[in-house]
Amino acid sequence: MHDMKILEDNWKKYQIKKRKPWYLFLSFLLIIILIIFLFLKNNFTLFSSVQSFLTKISNVEISNSKSVSNYSSDYTLLNGALTRLELIDKKIKNSDKSDISNDVLVDIPILEIPDESISEEVNNFNRKKIHLNIIESTSVKAYKDVEKRFYESNDIDDGLFLARSYYKKGNYKKSAYWSLQVNKLNTNVEESLLIFVKSKIKLGHKNEALGILISYIKKSNSKEAKDLLLRINNNKF
Amino acid sequence: MKSRYAAAKNVFLDSIDIDDYIELDSSVIAYQQLEHSIEKPLKMILLFGRPGTGKSILLNRIHEKLKHQKEIYYFDTPAANEKEFFYKLFKVLTKKKLPNNTEVNFSALIEFCQNLRGKREIVILLDEAQMYSPEMMEKIRLLSDTRAIKFVVSLHKTEDEDLIAKEHFQSRIWEVIELRNATDKDQTSYIHKKLLKKNLFEIANSIKDRDMKLIHKFTKGNYRECNKLMFTIFEICEYYDENEPSKINYSQIPKKIIEMSALKLGYIHA
B263, A4: Cβ pair inside 8 Å? Predict the structure, then answer.
């Protein structure tokens, strides 16, 4: 047995050869497991982002519906008008975001609210100062921030600010939308109703606007509303 | 001091010595079948199987068993040529040596055999018959036709040899006995009996069932291959026992050694 060393070496080589398929199989298995793991991980991330997005949307909807239900007693007068407005509401919500920058500015003053009164309010509240800055900057992002804040806090001032600003900029769809949002929160805010009526007229929905305005006048006997009705009828609007 | 494995190694030296014959279930059946066939009025009996299936040892054993009862002769090595074969046959039939410078006349031989019919019944065991030429096999067939000589022809089972068998014997009255490779169980029994016959109980016990399966896998149940593998296994064991005892486990033959033996004999390759 002089060849024992060679025989042992051959046996070692044979062992490697014998186990080769197992090594290959294990490597293959490991790769498969890794692929599955990565695939599941990615799916989970995607799922999480979709889930967070959906949660965000549902939160907004819930807060909106809560606001509506809180003030449901005030709807008795404007029920019919509000039903119609709800339908438009959704359309406006999905309207092109670029409207803010693309719409032509129309220099129409807000009748019932003089600029001075806005300035006074601005001076009183820090938040109003922010609004002024936004108007100066005309930054789309700044508007978005206010919209976001409105969805979070349901602050009527924010809603009114947006309605007013969009109306001034001639974006009547948005001004109608934001005035409606304010009206949903509080039906007694006259300014929101008047901006809504004016926006509707600008959008060519005169009958609808008049219906709402007349209903409001019957309910509130508001002088401002009556003036607006008169101007509409006299085509001075 | 001589290694315990030296004796075990020599147990598996390949031989057809009747003392080394191991009686297994399958070999007992083959033996009885052959013995029974020899008793029958058959002219030729074909014993075939792959090399190493135990044909030679079976012929040897039957010769040893029946030589005192019958006129039975065992031609273990095939004759180099026709002349030599007839010389051997002449000696068997006449119990005399052929005079120098003379040749056997085949026609005279046939005539002589025909005269022996009914008087003597001669059995000739022809081992390694595949070595005989077709012409020679034809003459053997003619001799068997005299019914004075009964031939037991042992052939290796290969495709060509099957063809020879078909060509020369198929139309004759004969019986076929086929020897096959051992089963796993038979081979285990064979190895154990071989070792126990030499009182190597501890070594026999050190070969476990799974080792037996591995040995059967390498040798495919062939007795000659089994002898070779077992010899090599014990040869390696002997080497380790004498030179590197730490590498050997006396209670169990290491699988490594079985595989090394298989590598050495070419059953597996690195």
Answer: no
**CATH fold of B25-179, please?**
Rossmann fold (3.40.50)
* pLDDT given for residue A2 in this prediction: 60
Of the three residues A25, A54, A70, the one that is the final residue of a domain is A70
Predicted TM-score (pTM) of this structure: 0.57
Angstrom distance (rounded) from CA B155 to CA B149: 19
Same domain, A211 and A95: yes
Question: What residues have CB less than 8 Å from B151, skipping those under 6 apart?
Answer: B43, B44, B45, B123, B124, B126, B140, B143, B144
**Which site among A2, A5, A7, A15 would you substitute to test the B interface, given the most B Cβ atoms closer than 10 Å to its Cβ?**
A7
Please tell me the distance from the alpha carbon of residue B65 to that of residue A21, in angstroms, as a whole number: 53
- Which CATH number does the domain housing residue A127 bear? 1.25.40.10
pLDDT of amino acid A30: 95
Residue B74, pLDDT > 90, answer: yes
Q: For chain A, say whether B265 makes contact (Cβ under 8 Å).
A: no
Nearest residue in B to A17, CA atom? B270
pLDDT digits (tens, 9 = 90+) for A5-50: 999 999 999 999 999 999 999 999 999 999 999 998 887 777 677 7
ipTM comes to 0.77
**Which residue range forms the structural domain that includes residue A31?**
1-70
State the pLDDT at residue A24.
93
A22 in contact with chain B, both atoms CB, cutoff 8 A = no
Measured between CB atoms, does A8 come within 8 Å of chain B?
A: yes
Instruction: Check pLDDT > 80 for residue B256.
Output: yes
Structure tokens at B154: 């042992």
pLDDT in tens, A59-117: 766 556 555 444 444 443 444 455 555 555 555 555 444 444 444 343 444 444 444 44
B260–A10 C-beta distance less than 8 A: yes
- Distance between CA atoms of B43 and A148, rounded to whole angstroms? 112
Query: In this structure, what are the phi and psi dihedrals at residue A77, rounded to the nearest 5 degrees?
Result: -75, -45
Mutate to test the interface with B, among A10, A12, A17 (most CBs of B within 10 A): A10
Q: Is A20 on the interface with B (CB under 8 A)?
A: no
Sorted by where each begins, the domain ranges of chain B are 4-16+182-265, 25-179
Cβ contact, residue pair A4, B239, below 8 Å? yes
Distances (CA, A) of B78 to A36, B62, B66, B74, B140: 69, 18, 21, 10, 13
